[in-house]
């Protein structure tokens, strides 16, 4: 059982909040820090860096080495906030570092002429170091169905993951072409080694005049962000659930085959405004 705490004090933090994931210990009423995510500034879509370092991510600078901040992976969305990709830390194989959900020409980049001498040198050092890194591993993807003004009811989301081996390990994929990414394969109808999960459809409750889900007492406030993740073959096996308990506190629970890192990244996708979904 885990808890996510949103920290958004101050003008800057309201635009670019940080999120911290804690493991709850019911027996001692305590909690253990696991992960932290911060939203990158000046990005065309939502872009989060996720680290296990509790202290050094507040001043995260994308031009600096991710090793400095202990970055484990990243989450990035398209402009509309309807598609997200989750990656481990590593080299981005796509030219220009563009988002795989966006065409290359749509990406806003900073030219060398716009950088200071120090920034140019830092970028050269980072580019040189990145070339020695392995290509990043794709850990998951999330797709939200378009739903303008919410006229089609509650949010509908699909989570894509690589399947598990007989030994219980996730199949490792490091795509170097857009067509080989999870979303690219799903779009092309290639479901080889692809695990497709969906959010459980809430049921209408006449007493509360709202859609509801049974979170087993783990969620106390209604929110469009609340969701449960299941596989079509077993709607009673809740692989992940996420929901609000107060203004800036949320519970997050997950189990096999999803890891806490993946679940944390998937939960982060629920926080962002989605232009085509609500």
TrEMBL record:
Pfam families linked to this entry: Tub
Entry superkingdom: Eukaryota
InterPro entries on file: Tubby-like_C, Tubby_C
Limits of the Tubby C-terminal domain: 2-272
Assigned protein family: Belongs to the TUB family.
PANTHER family: PROTEIN KING TUBBY, TUBBY-RELATED
Protein's UniProt name: Tubby C-terminal domain-containing protein
Native species: Mortierella alpina (Oleaginous fungus)
